[in-house]
Backbone:
């Protein structure tokens, strides 16, 4: 069975085709990041317009060499995300479903991240713990089964990626700051500044990053000569604080849950320091830590197609819109 997945929730226009026997057989992604970088963040109106401009060429590239008449169903991200951007994906999905006469399945973007490692690692089956760290979300989820998720902890304020991006701005780095912080931190001393590790000792699994970002803001104001060396030191010290908190919380999660597999998903999962810090838990706790391939860490349509392939629908005519800007995991139907 072939499922075509469409992802337009934020600033990536992505389409992929998942075949239940062969895996991903076609995919294409266009990132709008360069366009938004100029504004220091994603501009929703521009995002919608650009999805509109690019979706046909992304569709053509993703389905190149695939007879589109052999596609059995279409899954698309219906939320959470930017409303206008989601509507472009939904409208395209509806048109395609209508013209091909095949069912349409609205899916949750966060759930896509949670299940995505299953498409690469066949040995990963629920239950497992997923640490989802992206620009919009930071949560520790117990994936008890596909469709059965319990949020064990989450950020009470900023998402981790958001904190990376805000600190990036303070250090005059291009948007999004995450990869640039990682890059300049390589030259820095991670013990140069003793930034707070918010909620590291709290007895729950929640997280907080806004106080840490504010501490960086005050430190940056205090440093008289914010040269490249000082920037690298700030970046390395900030990154270390974030990673220490995340690693400690995952350790706590494992100790209280008995789960043996941990998956790190979302854009921040690309961070190599985070990866090696989590890997160190493997031996200490007797667990296995998995990461999606770098191209599947951030937003992508492969995870949407894969999630859709686990669903079936007879619904070929969705007349109402299923799009939701807010769609918490707790409200999956
Ligand atoms: O999952 P994603 O592509 O988009 C959503 O937010 O849904 O995540 C993007 C976030 C951005 O905040 C970006 O700065 C962060 O992931 N990021 C990183 C790294 N690469 C991307 N943060 C830290 N280190 C990285 N190497
Ligand atoms: Zn995402």
Residues:
């Amino acid at each position: 069975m072939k499922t075509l997945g469409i992802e337009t929730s934020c600033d990536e226009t992505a389409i992929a085709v998942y075949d239940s026997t062969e895996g991903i057989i076609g995919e294409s992604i266009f990132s709008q990041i360069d366009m938004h970088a100029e504004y220091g963040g994603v501009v929703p109106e521009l995002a919608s317009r650009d999805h509109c401009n690019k979706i046909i060429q992304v569709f053509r590239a993703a389905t190149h060499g695939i007879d589109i008449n052999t596609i059995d169903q279409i899954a698309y991200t219906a939320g959470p995300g930017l409303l206008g951007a989601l509507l472009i994906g939904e409208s395209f999905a509806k048109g395609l479903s209508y013209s091909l006469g095949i069912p349409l399945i609205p899916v949750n973007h966060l759930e896509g991240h949670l299940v995505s490692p299953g498409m690469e690692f066949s040995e990963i089956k629920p239950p497992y713990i997923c640490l989802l760290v992206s620009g919009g979300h930071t949560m520790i989820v117990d994936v008890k089964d596909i469709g059965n998720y319990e949020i064990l902890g989450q950020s009470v304020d900023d998402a981790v990626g958001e904190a990376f991006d805000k600190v990036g701005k303070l250090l005059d780095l291009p948007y999004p700051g995450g990869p640039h912080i990682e890059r300049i931190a390589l030259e820095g001393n991670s013990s140069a500044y003793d930034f707070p590790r918010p909620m590291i000792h709290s007895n729950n699994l929640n997280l907080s990053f806004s106080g840490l970002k504010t501490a960086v803001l005050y430190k940056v104001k205090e440093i008289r000569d914010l040269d490249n060396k000082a920037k690298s030191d700030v970046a390395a010290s900030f990154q270390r604080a974030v990673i220490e908190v995340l690693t400690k919380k995952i350790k706590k999660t494992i100790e209280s849950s008995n789960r043996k597999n941990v998956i790190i998903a979302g854009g921040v999962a690309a961070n190599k320091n985070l990866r090696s810090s989590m890997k160190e838990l493997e031996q200490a706790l007797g667990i296995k830590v998995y990461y999606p391939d770098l191209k599947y860490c951030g937003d992508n349509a492969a995870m949407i197609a894969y999630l859709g392939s686990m669903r079936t629908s007879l619904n070929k005519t969705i007349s109402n819109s299923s799009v939701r800007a807010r769609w918490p995991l707790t409200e999956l139907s």
Observations:
- DSSP finds twelve helices and ten strands in the chain.
- The first strand starts at residue 2 and ends at 7.
